[in-house]
Design goal:
The chain is an alpha/beta fold. The protein folds into 2 domains: 2-131, Resolvase, N-terminal catalytic domain (Rossmann fold, 3-Layer(aba) Sandwich), CATH 3.40.50.1390; 158-220, no CATH class. It is built from 9 helices and 7 strands. Strand 4 and strand 5 form a beta hairpin. The longest helix has 34 residues, at 113-146. It is elongated, with a radius of gyration of 26 Å. The model has no long low-confidence stretch (mean pLDDT 83).
Length: 221
């Protein structure tokens, strides 16, 4: 039997919080030794987000290396995938090859029916928790926006009020926005609008000519 270890970190902060590549690999090797796996291969994705499988070459290589009776071993499900869809796709692929999935943190082992059930439940609950967090974040941002408070960078056309969080209109930038809207209404392109604003002496905050993308964001605000 062969243990295929997959390890991943997305930022230096995660490495400092006890899920460094070295820590993950050590735990995977210890599990493999304890469970009688004679061969161990470790595949790595360093500095890569878990939000998508597309750019994770280490994961693809690990999945390709798995064959019958092997076990794909990860420190936690969060290292493997961040969506129920991706997680269950991996699980189904492993089952098609008669291989197992082991997650050390959640103590999941798909060699048993109970382990497979728990695995699916945890994957769904994990995505539910992330969806709830995103929902709360959107709600908080919408509330701040309704109060006219700053969200992220100061949008063009506004300036920060004395309280440090309320947005006020910037008359000079509002004049630029109005000019851009009038040009857009006349049917000219974004590039033509940028040239026209430059001809009139209007400049972006960096004191350079507006580019078409800046014009697009300005008109969409």
């Amino acid at each position: 039997m062969k243990a295929i270890g997959y390890i991943r970190v997305s930022t230096e902060d995660q490495a400092k919080e006890g899920v460094s590549l070295e820590s993950q690999e050590a735990k995977i090797r210890a599990w493999a030794d304890l469970n009688g796996y004679s061969e161990i291969e470790i595949f790595t994705d360093a500095g890569i987000s878990g939000s998508s499988m597309d750019k994770r070459e280490g994961l693809h290589a690990a999945l390709k290396a798995v064959s019958k009776d092997d076990a794909l071993v990860v420190y936690s499900l969060s290292r493997l995938a961040r969506s129920t869809k991706d997680t269950l796709e991996i699980a189904d692929m492993l089952m098609d090859r008669n291989a197992d999935l082991v997650s050390l943190s959640e103590k999941i082992d798909t060699t048993t029916a109970a382990g497979r059930m728990v695995f699916r439940m945890l994957a769904v609950l994990g995505e539910f928790e992330r969806d709830q967090l995103a929902e709360r974040t959107r709600g908080a941002m919408a509330y701040k926006k309704s109060k006219g408070e700053l969200i992220g960078a100061i949008p063009y056309g506004c300036t920060l009020g004395p309280d440090g969080k309320t947005l006020l209109e910037n008359p000079e930038e509002q004049e630029v926005i109005q000019a851009a809207r009038e040009l857009k209404a006349s049917g000219v392109s974004l590039r033509t609008i940028a040239r026209s604003l430059a001809d009139r002496g209007f400049k972006a905050r960096n004191r350079k000519q507006f580019d078409p993308k800046q014009i697009q964001r300005m008109l969409a605000a």
